[in-house]
Amino acid sequence: MRLIDSTSAAAIAPLPSLQVSYAEGTAADLLAQPGILALIGFGPAQGDPDDPRFVRVGLEPTEAGRFEVWRGGQPVRCGRHGALRWSSDGNYLFFAIEIDEAAVGGIEAAAEQAYAAVCQLIATHRFADGGPGHILRLWNYMDAINEGRGDDERYRHFCCGRARGLDPAARNGYSAATAIGRRDGKRVLQVYGLAAREEGVAIENPRQVSAWSYPRQYGPVAPTFARATRTPAGQLLVSGTASVVGHQSRHAGDTLAQLDETLRNLDSLLVAAGPCIAARGINAALLKVYLREPAEAAAVEQRLRRHLADPVGLLILLGDICRSDLRIEIDGIQG
Ligand code: 3EB
Predict the structure, then answer these.
(1) What is the atom index within ligand 1 of the atom nearest the CA of 244?
(2) Number of C-alpha atoms within 13 angstroms, CB side, residue 116?
(3) Which candidate, 66, 149, 165, 314, has a CA 20 to 30 Å from the CA of 39?
């Protein structure tokens, strides 16, 4: 027999879904709507609000004026701890941190500090059930991600610092992630993400070697992320997915072939995530496409629109993928 104790976590309702969408409008108007947990702007700054829930990702969108909006429940509380900002509705926690690389001695130290600060927040934040949180999803954006040769590449240094900064407790089940390069010349590491009062399930892709066990050729410290996180609400948070089969990049130099391989990887990941998620398919996802070459945006969009009968939302951002032979990457949220 299960005893119902009104003071226990069992009395708390199941985790509701987080509503994520792309929307047009002004940042101030969108932030004024009820239950806004986070608002993400893309491209160069333009009169940005000074609000802990707002982040600007300096990647140029091919279609201007759209924001990504995260809607939770009410009320939303928010605050700052040094460089870290957060907001929470009691079920979900949005967090963001931006670290000036020069102030801390480089990209590696910036990554270590960012991850240590995020893990500290997750461990100390109290959710509606009185407990600490669990990271579900992380995004990482940095300038000039492919600069530096071999193990001196900035992305590889980022991976070293990230792994050092992660709380040992977070090293067992990694969350979904994206790591993309900006071209704005601002040596500021941005990390933002989502945590919840309940744990998600890490999903791996049977077509791909798990990133954390990539062989040495990709750097001294393997990237610490899962291919996706299935949330307790049944949503799928899909990591940056590229034309990687096994551990190798495929179709070097051919963006459309890389796109097709990426779509095969996404389909296989959805199947691995379970029958409900597989049945809804990639059509039911809000997608972000990261593309190196601006001139290829139209062809990429055309092929994607043909593949996805009726996408919930599609945003194309110009940026650098973390391996120099990859030209396109897609992340998303389904459900
Ligand atoms: C890959 O499959 C592509 O370092 O956090 C994708 C998503 C990639 C996240 C990360 C890297 C990361 O290895 C690269």
Answers:
(1) 2
(2) 12
(3) 165
